[in-house]
């Protein structure tokens, strides 16, 4: 056990409201401060930066990572990135002679660049990402070098902020994403007409609308069935939104390398409807949503509409899947559990790299 906390600098491309930034924030917030001293670097500030500083976690917002590294002198750098080459950041880390480097590879992509040799351990946010990495690179993922660490979710908070006995007879579904066309699929809209015909008082609540969604609603005369909401910034706002719906309708043509909103809906006790992606696209949504267990998987708009109708007209099945999702999230994604696993990795690295504090 070190006499003083191990200094860990988390590096992320921005401090906005994206899932990568949120996962980083939750990891940092739940580290044991008696053992680890976390700080955060990003070239771009944002709402996560405000929240981190409110928790008395230091942030460094600058275009000059090397200068920050020389000032902080971290024992470990933990970089959160897509996975593909980012030579500037890794070059700065090498120049600063950082003793140990961990990366969270958000999309599990390989980085064959020479700069990637500075990385001591790669974390994948799902088993799917690790398996795809091995499949596409031919690399045998030695656990000492590669492992899975799911994104953390504040499951304790969501359990306390959502009802144990939810009314699943409320005919409403919800969707949360960034207002980015790349986060959408036609399935997110094409299921609506069939559901409205079957359930005339159905309501669809959407956070993160795009112009195409608003146009679809107008063109199909669905205005009274669809409500567009402003973005949310806190877990409390997310819980309030989840409490207004009976299921999460997930649809994203790019798929999910993890699926943070899905995991949060599960933590709130909601069943999830999602879809598979083809080829080597991200497909971890199927790792979270087990068909018939924590939700339903639908490949076409007809299947998707049937899945939504089934859950809204079979409240006992919806309740069973929602409870199974809540239990799965608490077992696998609980922030405290994930942070403890990360602490174990950090501790192993300090021993392996001879870091003494």
Question: What is shown here, in short?
Answer:
Pfam families: Glyco_trans_1_4. This protein is an alpha/beta fold. Helices cover 40% and strands 16% of the residues.
Description:
This is Glycosyl transferase group 1. With 357 residues, the chain is α/β, with parallel strands linked by helices. The chain has two domains: 6-152 and 335-352, 3-Layer(aba) Sandwich (Rossmann fold); 155-332, 3-Layer(aba) Sandwich (Rossmann fold). The protein has 15 helices and 13 strands. It has helices at 19-29, 47-54, 65-72, 87-95, 127-137, 155-161, 187-190, 192-198, 211-219, 235-242, 260-267, 285-288, 301-313, 315-332, 335-352, and strands at residues 6-11, 36-42, 58-61, 76-81, 100-105, 121-124, 146-148, 172-176, 203-207, 226-229, 248-249, 272-274, 295-297. The strands form three sheets. Strands 3-2-1-4-5-6-7 form a seven-stranded parallel β-sheet, with helices on both faces. A three-stranded parallel β-sheet has the order 8-9-10, with no helix packed on it. The protein has a three-stranded parallel β-sheet with strand order 11-12-13, with helices on both faces. Strand 2, helix 2 (47-54) and strand 3 form a beta-alpha-beta unit. Helix 8 runs parallel beside helix 13 and helix 11 crosses helix 14 (315-332). The protein is elongated and about 65 Å long. The relative contact order is 0.14. The mean pLDDT is 96.
